[in-house]
Amino acid sequence: MTMQKFPSNVNSVKSRFTNRFLQALKKMNKNKPASPSIRETYRRYHFIRVASYASMASVIRPRRAWSYATLWKIRNRALMKRSSRARSLTRNPRKDIGFEQVSDLRKLVPGGEEMKICRLLNETIHYIKCLEAQVEIMRNIVDHCST
Amino acid sequence: MSSRRSRSRQSGVSRITEDQIADLVSKLQQLIPEIRNRRSDKVSASKVLQETCNYIRNLHREVDDLSDRLSQLLETTDSESAQAAIIRELTNVNLELRCLYFLDCYSLGFGQYIIYSPT
Asked: Which residue of A99, A122, A129 is in closest CB contact with B49?
């Protein structure tokens, strides 16, 4: 399995993310309630946040472990809401070479709990690049909307 | 004797892995703005990982903050301008996507295989 370089096409990723994210925002705006309450505000905030991560992950699709893990987590959370809340099984933590920061990194990168260290570092690099792109585009949108 | 063989094989594997790890850590070092600006070659791997964790946490926090601002912007009753801006942005992006799709079809060599789905 060849490790894909990022960005094989940065602009394409950015454009596709922008497209999906804006579609999600447009869909959200359609169902606007008459009186905004605090709960409604929180729901919108939560929706936008999840939509941003989901949009980026779906643009990358299951090509990367972190995007697959993100999409899986989001879908599972939606399913778990309907059924009763099941406790997540605590698996044995992976033994690491040396650094304790690696365990912190495993918690931050989605899907990083059970990877080997080489793959974890590779995923981290790709994840950071995608996150930076996501933040940049969201900032652009906010600037656009504020004017 | 089998233990000696397995030990040498293990050290060989671990040597390759250590080189790979060092290479990946140096690539990470280039990404993190904290370390990149300091321009010192001697940054320990644990420092790089620590700064990576901090950087990722910062990025998550920025996403939260931007989502918050977006939700407030889209919530106001007269968010017609915001909605119009979104629709304008969407049409721009669609045009851009179509251009990119055609450009990439022509510019990609035989070695690449990127699957697009033009919306």
From this structure: A99
